[in-house]
Amino acid sequence: MRKTGKNSPKTSSCANTAATQALSKSPEHGQIKAKSRLVPGLTLVATPIGNLGDIATRALAAFAEADLVLCEDTRVSKKLLGAYGMSVRLASYHDHNAERIRPRILSRLRRGDRIVLISDAGTPAIADPGYKLVSACHDEQIAVSTIPGPTALIAALTISGLPTDRFYFGGFLPAKAGARRAALEALKSLVSTLVHYETPRRLAATLADAAEILPGRSAVVGRELTKLHEEVRRGTLAELQAHYAAAGPCRGEVVLLIGPPAKPDPAMTETAIDDALTAALDCGTLRDAVQSVARATGVARNQVYRRALRLVDKVSGDV
Ligand code: SAM
Known about the structure:
By secondary structure, the chain is an alpha/beta fold. The protein is built from twelve helices and ten strands. A five-stranded parallel sheet has the order 3-2-4-1-5. A five-stranded mixed sheet has the order 6-7-10-8-9, with helices on both faces. 33% of the residues are buried. S-adenosylmethionine (SAM) binds next to helix 6, strand 7, strand 8 and strand 10.
C-alpha cells in the first residue's frame, strides 16, 4: 500500500511563493487559480516544446509543491523553471543513470514523497525517459498521476491535415539506412498516419527512403512547432525530399508525418484492374506488374496477384 505523509514545509512554502509570483506575473492567467493538490506519488508533468507560454497553471503549482523534480538535464530545466520565476529542487533522471537511481526514487515515493517527473521539453516518457519508473510505481501500488500538456507528435499531427483517426507513432527512425528502410518496409501496409521524430541532418535521407518504399504518399514536415520559425510543409514524399535535398539540412526540431496508403478505388472494376495489368505485363515481369498496379490502384496486392495469375493462365491457355 502507498504511504501518505511527509512534506518539507520549508521547500513547500518557498516554492509556493515562487509559483504564486509566476502566476500573478502573467496577466493572461487572469483569475485562473491553479488548484493543484499534489498528492504523494509520482506526477508526470508536460512542459513546453518551444513556447514558454504553453505551461499549465497546474504544472507551475506542482513544481512549487513537489518534494523533488526529476528532469533530464538540470541545466535545461533550471533555465525553464527560472523563466517562470521558480527555483525548485531538481535531480537528473536520464537514460544513463535511470537504472542506478530508480531504487532510491522508489524508496522516497514509498515514504510518501511527492515527486514530479519532467523532460527537457514536452511530455515525459514520450521518446524520453520515464516509462520504466511509471511501470515500477504501478508494480508497487504507488500513485501515478499526470498534468498533461504539449507533446510534439500531437501538435504536429493535429495541424498536419493528415488523417488523425488512426495514427502510429514510431519515435525516431533508425539512424542507419538499412535499419531505417526495414522499419519503413514493416509499416507499408499499416492503414494509419505514420508519425516519427527526425533530426534535421537525416531528414532528406529519410524522405528519400520513404519516397521509394511508400511511393505517392502525402507527407508533412512539422518544424520548430510553437516557435518563431514554425513551419508546416506539405507535399508528396518525393516533393518534400526534393525540397529538403535542394535546401540543405534544415535547422531546429522536426516531426515527419506520412499519410496512410490510398484507399482502393471502389470504382476499380476487375476489368479495369485487368486492363492495367495487361499494360504493365507488356513491359515488365509479373512481380513488377502486380506491384505497380497495386500501388497505382490501392487494391490489395494479393487480389491484384490473383487477377494477374488468371490473365497469365488465360494467355498460356490461348497458346
Ligand atoms: N518528449 C518530447 C515530446 O513530448 O514531444 C519529445 C522528446 S524527443 C527527445 C525530441 C524530438 O521531438 C525532437 O528531435 C523533434 O523530433 C521533436 N520535437 C520536439 N520539439 C519540437 C518542436 N517544437 N517542433 C518539432 N518537433 C519537435
